[in-house]
Design brief:
The protein is built from 12 helices and 15 strands. By secondary structure, the chain is of the alpha/beta class. The structure holds adenosine-5'-diphosphate and magnesium ion (MG).
Length: 349
Amino acid sequence: MITTTGLTKVYQSRGREVTALDGVDLHVREGEVFGVIGQSGAGKSSLIRCVNLLERPTSGTVTVAGQDLTALAGRGRRAGKELREARSRIGMVFQHFNLLASRTVRDNVELPLEILGVTGRERTRKALELLDLVGLADKAKAYPGQLSGGQKQRVGIARALAGDPKVLLSDEATSALDPETTRSILQLLRDLNQQLGLTVLLITHEMDVVKTICDSAALMQKGRIVESGTVGDLLATPGSELAHELFPVGGTASGPDRTVVDVTFHGDAAGRPVISQLSRTYNIDISILGAAMDTVGGKQIGRMRIELPGRFEENVVPIGFLREQGLQAEVVETASVTVPAPLTKEVAK
Ligand SMILES: Nc1ncnc2c1ncn2[C@@H]1O[C@H](COP(=O)(O)OP(=O)(O)O)[C@@H](O)[C@H]1O
Ligand SMILES: [Mg+2]
């Protein structure tokens, strides 16, 4: 649904060049919630602004729903109308809501429809329908100043949906909200994703946001994507920083001739007594060094770091047993030698 290739953005700032995006290849599948996480200054906002051409990329391409926006933007005035229409199919939600204080809630939601040339009565019907969808039917006549932060963001989301977008972009939509309101807004985004089949690309600096609603995630550092994949694939990638942040299961081998394995459980596998079966089948003592269980994107996922006696060579069969049970099992450390992470952390798309 969203693809960028070699996306680069260089700002000219006080005679200096700032490279905010340095060759970003992003692939967001239709219907998924995709989170880009990274520290302040990593280039997240630049990325999302380039995706809807609010910011003109220095080089590279952006394709949304099969349409090459960068090509349209490069074709000058005549393609302007096409570009505007394509952009109206991309909703955008901002951290600070960006509502017009002098307009009622309903009029704020109507604004993009006005720009699209939708007539008065149809505009009002659509705005009221959207306000109902975000749970604000009773606030149509209120002004933004009379609303709480969470309510303002609901108006921002209703406005973003006015053009019937296939894609919703969210730049730190919950960063200005308290934890409880954050949860309710994230739940709303997830509901919209599922009810409308909306593809959501969100950026955040909070791992909890990724954990709560994302199907896939990418880690951004210094203008580059250094890891990306579905949450399940990331958790199965040895050395993945995102996996470690999502499920911090610490612990190192208690001595030489020990093999440390990270085991990831998905869905129904989480309910089966696999570890005790492993212990009984191979007559080995297993130590649990760390464990974490949580829901990611609405699915139950668990992760456990276990220690098996013996070197890796002696544990090939038990590790194979875990994998046969449908679990992901990745060797972290064996005989005090840390297994190197793969050269590229990019996992299967
Ligand atoms: N309009 C701009 N002019 C100059 N530099 C900018 C501009 N916008 C962002 N930058 C710089 O680009 C880098 C990435 O910024 P940004 O995309 O906002 O990152 P993030 O959203 O991850 O905090 C930073 O070094 C920032 O200072
Ligand atoms: Mg930002």
